[in-house]
Specification:
Strand order of the largest sheet: 1-3-2
Number of strands: 3
Low-confidence stretches: none
Largest sheet: 3 strands, antiparallel
Distance between the termini: 48 Å
Structural class: mainly alpha
Mean pLDDT: 82
Order of helices and strands: EHHEEHHHH
Shape: elongated
Oligomer: single chain
Length: 148
C-alpha cells in the first residue's frame, strides 16, 4: 500500500482526477512516476487533500494553503499539531470575514437599498453627493472593508 493510483486517490478523497491534477499543478500535492510512467501518490496525500478541502470551506484561498504548506519543514504533510496552528491562523481570517459580512448584512437595507453607493439621492450617507469625489461604485462599503 505504498503507492496509490490517481483513480484510487480521487475516489477515496471524494474529488475528481482533474482536481488532483489541478492541485498538483498548484504545488499543493505531489506525485511521482512509477516504472511505467504512471502517476502515483503516497497514502499521506489524503491528509493534504483533507486539509485543502477543510481550508477551502473556511474561505482560505489555494494560494494561502500553498503558502501554509510550504512553511512546513521539508514541505511535509501537515500533522495534527500543524493543523492546530494553521487553523488558528485561518480562524482569525474567518472571524474578519464574518465581521465584514455582519456589517454588510446590517447595512444592506439602509445602504444598498436606498442607493447610497455614491449616488445623489441619499441624504443620510451621501448628502450633496460628497462621495463622488472618492470614486465610483460602493465607496462606503469598500472603505469599511479596506479598514479591516
Amino acid at each position: 500500500m505504498g503507492e496509490w493510483a490517481v483513480g484510487r486517490v480521487a475516489k477515496r478523497a471524494g474529488v475528481k482526477v482533474s482536481t488532483l491534477h489541478f492541485y498538483e499543478s498548484k504545488g499543493l500535492i505531489f506525485s511521482y512516476r512509477n516504472a511505467g510512467n504512471q502517476r502515483r501518490y503516497s497514502p499521506e496525500v489524503l491528509r493534504r487533500i483533507s486539509v485543502i478541502k477543510a481550508a477551502q470551506k473556511l474561505g482560505v484561498t489555494l494560494e494561502e494553503i500553498r503558502e501554509a504548506f510550504s512553511s512546513l519543514p521539508d514541505n511535509r504533510t501537515p500533522t495534527q499539531h500543524d493543523w492546530e496552528q494553521l487553523s488558528k491562523q485561518w480562524n482569525h481570517q474567518l472571524q474578519q470575514r464574518i465581521h465584514y459580512l455582519e456589517r454588510l448584512r446590517d447595512s444592506l437595507t439602509g445602504c444598498i437599498g436606498c442607493g447610497c453607493l455614491s449616488m445623489k439621492n441619499c441624504p443620510l450617507y451621501n448628502e450633496d453627493d460628497k462621495l463622488a469625489a472618492e470614486g465610483s461604485g460602493p465607496v462606503l462599503l469598500n472603505r469599511k472593508r479596506e479598514s479591516e
